[in-house]
Design brief:
CATH class of the largest domain: Mainly Alpha
CATH architecture of the largest domain: Up-down Bundle
Bound molecules: flavin-adenine dinucleotide
CATH topology of the largest domain: Butyryl-CoA Dehydrogenase, subunit A, domain 3
Cofactor: FAD
Order of helices and strands: HHHHHHHEEEEEHEEEHHEEHHHH
Protein name: Cyclohex-1-ene-1-carbonyl-CoA dehydrogenase
Organism: Methylobacterium isbiliense
Keywords: FAD, Flavoprotein, Oxidoreductase
CATH superfamily of the largest domain: Butyryl-CoA Dehydrogenase, subunit A, domain 3
Strand content: 5-15%
Distance between the termini: 49 Å
Strand order of the largest sheet: 1-4-5-8
Shape: globular
Number of helices: 14
Family: Belongs to the acyl-CoA dehydrogenase family.
Structural class: alpha+beta
Length: 388
Amino acid sequence: MTQDSQHETYPEIREAVQKLCARFPGEYWRALDREMAYPTAFVDALTEAGYLSVLIPEEYGGSGLPLSAAAAVLEEVQRAGCNGGACHAQMYTMGTVLRHGSEAQKRRYLPGIAEGSLRLQAFGVTEPTSGTDTAALKTTARRDGEHYVVNGQKIWTSRAEHSDLMLLLARTTPPREGAKRTEGLSVLLVDMREALGRGLTIRPIRTMMNHATTEVFFDDLRVPAENLIGEEGKGFRYILSGMNAERLLIAAECVGDAKWFIAKAGAYARERRVFGRPIGQNQGIQFPIAKAYANMRAAELMVREGLRLYESGANPGPEANMAKMLAADASFEAANACIQTHGGFGFAEEYDVERKFRETRLYQVAPISTNLILSYLAEHVLGLPRSY
Ligand SMILES: Cc1cc2nc3c(=O)[nH]c(=O)nc-3n(C[C@H](O)[C@H](O)[C@H](O)COP(=O)(O)OP(=O)(O)OC[C@H]3O[C@@H](n4cnc5c(N)ncnc54)[C@H](O)[C@@H]3O)c2cc1C
């Protein structure tokens, strides 16, 4: 047992995920990356093994495990060089249905999601004009008899082409003077199988990494009113309530990425000989890797603290945000050290370093950018005036 593995939670899950991931080596991801293709076989394997439904309660067909089990799964996926970005959203978007959906909705959707016959991978919040300012979103859902009629546009709706359902945040009541801007937003569960071609259009966006992200257009799309989650007008609160879980899971992924980069850099530094000795003998090579390791461990502690508080029933906004920021920084620092250690080979596709480097860079921006985390801490933890 290594120093690292002694403190890790859920060793059996981790070992089983590592075995599964070994079936999807670098060649698999490289081929997909070239074509910008979705890792269907990998996502199917994770689904069949039950890993994407660890958070769904047993009564709805999942394994009913705590958030730290989901974090262990995603961390191992990244640590193995795979990419959980293809499917991680299912773990946290499902939570909105679980916490705020009616019993009928839970019975209708959760068992299918748990067994893999229904995919809830798409999360439509961000819009091109509103960006981080979610309350300024412009997509509307107007009640018309037994339906909502949806008009507007979302951007960066990842995995929309590989999902059956989308959790959509839209404005059901225009902003009222004097009321909070976050009021009047509602969450709808859109069945994209019925909606495509009937008011829903999806357009892929090519990005610097293979992420299956899209923009989505709504043109008089009719969504049954029974697909409203919770109460009309309270959607912002529902989305917000899932964000700490989302941040902690993304942070766990970043810790996994950092571990992959550190292991990869260490292995290369031991093996590559220049000037008649391993490059890892030079402190100029050792120190950046050692520093990245220390920062990864510190971030990992914050992730664990966030998970501990979350599982004790608290709503750990500061810890979830700090964990996400520190882990994203640690993964990118490790990525940078890894590429530098590899010299020119860091840029060659066959080493997978440049691919992982591109993939982990995302987490400085999404699902929440570093600046917004710092603003949150400044305002809500340190009591400084709101800056925006
Ligand atoms: C690959 C990818 C996948 C994504 N997947 C999804 C998804 O599935 N669903 C979804 O809803 N969204 C998704 N997103 C959107 C993502 O959450 C946003 O990109 C992110 O929240 C930032 O919003 P924005 O891009 O509109 O940036 P903007 O809000 O335009 O911000 C641009 C820059 O300005 C900074 N900034 C803005 N306001 C302030 C301020 N007040 N103080 C200091 N700095 C500020 C930001 O930090 C950022 O660096 C995804 C994005 C990407 C790139």
